[in-house]
Amino acid sequence: MTTDAERTDALGSFGRYAGPATLILASLADGPKHGYALTKDIEAIASVTLAPGTLYEALRRIETLGLIVALAAEDRRKPYELTAAGATALRSHLSTQRQIAEVGLKRLAGTWGVA
Question: How many domains does the chain have?
């Protein structure tokens, strides 16, 4: 069984799937979506196209951790929904990423004069 602490730190342990998982969770933050809708929303918000294998592997992993749940299928489409644990994990991960981005931008400004 996955603990709350493991769920909160889940995205940090995803390795190469952290990016897709973050994009999926961010997309689901405004409501349930099925695979195609996730793909299109992620393209719109991040200009990233997730290959089907990458999308569904990331969905499987984050569902196993309890960060999302699959809802009842609509026709052949299986929508997913963010859980409270998923919202907590996403908030924590994005906060860390924001801190990293702020440090990087400050260092660029100091060394390269780039704001």
Answer: 1
Reply yes or no on whether the pLDDT at 90 is more than 70.
yes
DSSP state of 65: T
Decide if pLDDT at 114 tops 60: yes
| 18, two tokens | 């952290």
Angle between the N-to-C axes of helices 18-28 and 35-46, in degrees from 0 to 180, rounded to the nearest 10: 100
Q: What is the CATH number of the domain that holds 42?
A: 1.10.10.10
Q: Encode pLDDT of 7-27 as tens digits.
A: 556 666 566 668 999 999 999
Using alpha carbons only, how large is the chain's radius of gyration in Å?
16
Can you tell me the mean pLDDT for 86-103? 94
